[in-house]
Amino acid sequence: MLPSLSLLFLLGLTAQTPAPANPAAVIAPLVGHEVAAVVHVDLNRLDFQETVKKLTGAFATEKQLARSIDSANSLVDSLKKANARELFVMVDPSDYPNLPMFVFTLKPGSDPKPLQNVIQGLLHQYGLKSAVVEAIGDLVVGGPPQLVAFARMRKYPPRADLAAALAASDNAPAKILIIPSFVQRKALEESITTLPREFGGGPITTFTQGLIWATLMLNSGDQPSLKLRIQGKDATTAGQLADLARHSKAFAAERAKQDPLTAPFAGMVDKLNLQPNQDQVIMEISPGQLAELFIPLAQAVQETSRRAECVKNLKQIGLAMLNYHEANKAFPRQATLDKSGQPLLSWRVQILPFLDQQELYNQFHLDEPWDSPHNKSLISKMPAVFGCPSSKHAASEGKTCYLVPHGERTILSGKQGGRLQDVFDGTTRTMMAAEMGDDAAVIWSKPDDWQIGGIVDFKPLLGHHPGGTNILFADSSLRFVKQTISRAVLKALITRDGGEVINPDAF
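Structure (tokenized):
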């Protein structure tokens, strides 16, 4: 449930309808002493799809992002139809890694049961079956059983920092409130006495004693924008916090440049402007800046999703390879051969029974080549596991980007197929398969792969992921290998018995 809730907060834009009564009064009895942050979203003022369209423009129509938008919007609609009005999420660091407590307010006079059922279904969907959901008065509260039990007592006195942060949030329909407790501040002071040089140095008390609270607000309207307000102890402290924030901003921008996935954020972070205003520090992100920030964020989320899908596919392929080896005492050959030694079908066809594709395997004429009239008709039936989500090739083309290295001393070379006992370089240092770029894609049933000659080049592996590609190793483990890898190390990973000693940091 939490990934969807986070997405709602980050992307939510609200329509201009009246805000509900004082949220501080609603939530105060449930906010414990050690709650360090509160997320507040007014679901009834949320226009999710319009927000994404305004922030991403034409990018919102991209297939994978569009599916994510539809999924999140369906979640919003299901909560609203169950009479949910507002959402609060209480974050207590001591509860980590458990689910934090969350609270929904209801429309006046509503039955809480439909909302309880919707939330329980979402919790089960995300594997959070130990969490409980209860109606407590006119609220629906969920989370770990011990937290919900405390909420049932409603015993906590109002926190002045929570009330002040909410009051200063400009009636924004979505906000994150940072309200560190006394214990959390003291724990930080005992573990870190001096700020790191990258953050400007100086005593940690600049932060722990100088910051009272902070709030990050999403402002609604035709032009969505963000505003950060940090409350200092006094004007002097606010100036020190502004300096700390500037150093943090510069550090974040520099770190972003080092990763191809986050590099687009670096320039945007540099543009963010923090200004002291009496005893506060304020940063406003304009509609244009927010859109400029959101698009690379959406692209980064999309890339992360695609990379994860590739990892899942390759892991399935790796497991199928090991199961084939278990059954046949060897890996499949790179290609099956006819009596004259001519290649017929790829290793991908040979492992079909170990990918729950026995029926498709039975349809192949195993004594015919991949492009015989009969076998050619099966190209369009390529299993999804061989389809790379980052590829531009349509599934109907039957082209895969998952190839094995093929050449002398590679893992599938040999008359009978490679064996684990022949992998003298170690299974964690010997390449099984790789995700190639679209230019290297092949018909999945064709015995065609990454041909290895005397000089090995990383270039054919590029094109899908910034900075590198996914590599499957002989033990079925997976690593994202950066394009900066040396040719010597790449060649050593490709061979199964070259005798090279490879430092894991080398790739």
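Residues 409 and 495 are 5 Å apart (CA to CA). The mean pLDDT is 86.
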